[in-house]
Amino acid sequence: MKLSLSMWSLHRTVRAGGWTVIDFLSFCRKEGIDSVELLNVFWQNQAVELDEVARYTRENGIRVASYAVGNDFVSASEEKRLAALREITDAFPVAKALGTSVVRVFSGSLHPGIDYDQARGWIISGLSEAAKLAEEAGITLALENHGQLAGRGGQVKDIIEQVGSKALRSTFDTGNFLLVDELPSQAIEPLLPYIAHVHVKDFKRHPEGRYQSPGGQTFEGAVAGEGDTRLASLIERLEASGYAGAYVLEYEGTDDEAEGIRGSYAFADEHNRTHGEGRP
């Protein structure tokens, strides 16, 4: 297992310090991290920055494993649903410029006054159109289990199968299942044939945690391997299944983000030593 680092792992640091994408990549270079996930939310001026970022990654041997967008198809407004589709399709040339063909996408959030079936219809319709265009562009869309509409393994599987395109696969986020009261070890089995991208994330139960599940459990972000996901066994299951995509770290704890990242990479080091693979 070789970790990539999502820029989201440093989102508090980035926002507090006004970091650019280049600042994040400079941090990675200094830490010896050579694979990353970038997100559209962090551009300050994409038109100006993109060429510089692409050049920096090439010159410093940093691979962009994936590019992530935050689309939301759940709206009664057709204009907003079209805007969500454009957010995805606008990512295609950016991803290609960065050297990746994997674009992480969302489904959307459950809003007041909208029921599940209605939301599901909009999600399937929007992702069907996005997947059609992704096929033409040579892009793989990876739907993350996130929120109450596509948070459980069965929900993600249903959406992927209803869309019915090889261009729509799963981003298996190891931690997010806990936030919808599902064990990751149960969620992984139906999704294994569809997983094309993995977010390595850990949460632990905490009485004052910031994240509350529908069942009332509260969680806080943790260093990889120190939470309740049973992360090592999930990775073993992915490896046994032949998964060959990226393992992208998303640290979401409240401690110093750089230290949380270093601790998570130490977990990956130990996993690889245990499995005889050496340093990732």
From TrEMBL:
Pfam family, one: AP_endonuc_2
GO function term, MF aspect, one: isomerase activity
Keywords: Isomerase
InterPro entries linked to this entry: IolE/XylAMocC-like, Xyl_isomerase-like_sf, Xyl_isomerase-like_TIM-brl
Keyword Isomerase: yes
Every Xylose isomerase-like TIM barrel domain range: 27-267
SUPFAM superfamilies from the UniProt entry: Xylose isomerase-like
PANTHER family: BLR5974 PROTEIN, HYDROXYPYRUVATE ISOMERASE
Protein's name in the database: Sugar phosphate isomerase/epimerase family protein
Organism: Paenibacillus oleatilyticus
